[in-house]
């Protein structure tokens, strides 16, 4: 049982990654990004997830500096955007991200989407960065099983993470089992389905019985399913509340009730059909 925001899971290369972090998708660059990072750090968060396409890496970097937490306590993730995929362009994109974040290295670098005909070449660039010690772990985002199978045929180093849309309406059971078998850690983006799940009657009932909020119930469900989670918020009270999930455990029956809400329904694009 995960009982603290500081707790980590060990990735297959031995690197420890926090189970819980802050996502900054759609957070504005500048003070909004910097403030939410600082608020998160004050509330014990040590993992921050950004991406080149979010266009807020500079604000995130500023927040990291201003929070004054030592770099070795932090776990910072960014991602290479689709337009930059390919070998040389990925290496250049990584340099640009590091520069914007004002960091010497990243803890995790991900391929943002499986761009057909490019992601294998992109992966080779990530392997190079990893071997050079410029990033502590490498992984992918939005990869289905068949994308992972294609990558694994060519990869010298297996991805450490697959970050995907994951929530009670999209429980990704087969993907989870595949990743577990391969030693690839699953990580959830949009764990609250952009807020839609907070109105679900089953989740609201369960929340009442534990005297927790619907968001806290869902985030706890993630952790108990051994999925890393990175909820996003810019509101101070919500950043604090999202992290208040380490003093209770959902029982097996309630876990099953939430699992049963699955509809294989996405709020984001399907990784087999995206056009960006």
Biggest sheet statistics: 8 strands, parallel
Molecular shape: globular
Distance between the termini: 39 Å
User: At the first level of CATH, what is the class?
Assistant: Alpha Beta
- The overall average pLDDT, rounded, is 98
Q: Count the strands? A: 10
Q: Assign a percent range to the helix content.
A: 25-40%
Question: Which tags fit this structure?
Answer:
276 residues; alpha/beta; TIM Barrel; eight-stranded parallel sheet; two-stranded antiparallel sheet; 10 helices; 10 strands; Aldo/keto reductase; AKR
Question: What layout of secondary structure does this protein have?
Answer:
Blueprint (H helix, E strand, L loop, with lengths): L7 E3 L5 E3 L3 E2 L7 H12 L4 E3 L7 H11 L7 E6 L6 H15 L4 E6 L7 H13 L3 E7 L3 H10 L6 E5 L7 H10 L2 E5 L11 H10 L3 H11 L3 E2 L6 H7 L9 H8 L17
Parallel strand pairs: 3-4, 4-5, 5-6, 6-7, 7-8, 8-9, 9-10
Antiparallel strand pairs: 1-2
Helix pairs in contact: 1-2, 2-3, 3-4, 7-8
Structural summary, described in words:
- Helix 6 links the parallel strand 8 and strand 9 (185-189).
- The protein has helices at 31-42, 57-67, 87-101, 119-131, 145-154, 173-182, 201-210, 214-224, 236-242, 252-259; strands at 8-10, 16-18, 22-23, 47-49, 75-80, 106-111, 135-141, 161-165, 185-189, 228-229.
- Helix 3 (87-101) crosses helix 4 (119-131) and helix 7 packs across helix 8.
- An eight-stranded parallel beta sheet has the order 3-4-5-6-7-8-9-10. It has a two-stranded antiparallel ribbon with strand order 1-2.
- It is globular, with a radius of gyration of 18 Å.
- It is α/β, with parallel strands linked by helices and 276 residues long.
- The mean pLDDT is 98.
- It contains ten helices and ten strands.
- The termini are far apart.
- It has one domain (8-194, 223-247): TIM Barrel.
- This is Aldo/keto reductase.
- Keywords: NADP, Oxidoreductase.
- InterPro entries: AKR, AKR5G, Aldo/ket_reductase_CS, NAD(P)_OxRdtase_dom_sf, NADP_OxRdtase_dom.
- Pfam families: Aldo_ket_red.
- Belongs to the aldo/keto reductase family.
């Amino acid at each position: 049982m995960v009982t603290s925001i500081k707790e980590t899971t060990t990735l297959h290369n031995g690197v420890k990654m926090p189970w819980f972090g802050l996502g900054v998708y759609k957070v504005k660059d500048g003070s909004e990004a910097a403030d939410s990072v600082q608020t998160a750090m004050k509330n014990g968060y040590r993992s921050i997830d950004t991406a080149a396409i979010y266009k807020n890496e500079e604000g995130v970097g500023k927040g990291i500096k201003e929070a004054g937490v030592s770099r070795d306590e932090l776990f910072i993730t960014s991602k290479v955007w689709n337009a930059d995929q390919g070998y040389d362009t990925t290496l250049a994109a990584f340099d640009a991200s590091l520069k914007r974040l004002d960091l010497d290295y990243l803890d995790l670098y991900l391929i943002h989407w499986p761009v057909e005909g490019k992601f294998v070449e992109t992966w080779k660039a990530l392997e190079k960065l990893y071997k050079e010690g410029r990033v502590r772990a490498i992984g992918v985002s939005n990869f289905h099983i068949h994308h992972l199978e294609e990558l694994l045929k060519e990869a010298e180093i297996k991805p450490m993470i697959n970050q995907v849309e994951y929530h009670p309406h999209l429980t990704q059971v087969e993907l989870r089992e595949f990743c577990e078998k391969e030693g690839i850690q699953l990580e959830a983006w949009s764990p609250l389905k952009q807020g839609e799940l907070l109105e679900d009657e089953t989740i609201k009932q369960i929340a009442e019985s534990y005297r927790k909020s619907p968001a806290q119930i869902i985030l706890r469900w993630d952790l108990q399913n051994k999925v890393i989670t990175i909820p996003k918020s810019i509101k101070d009270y919500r950043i604090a509340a999202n992290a208040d999930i380490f003093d209770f455990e959902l029982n097996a029956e309630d876990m099953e009730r939430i699992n049963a809400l699955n509809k294989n329904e996405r709020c984001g694009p399907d990784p087999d059909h995206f056009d960006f």
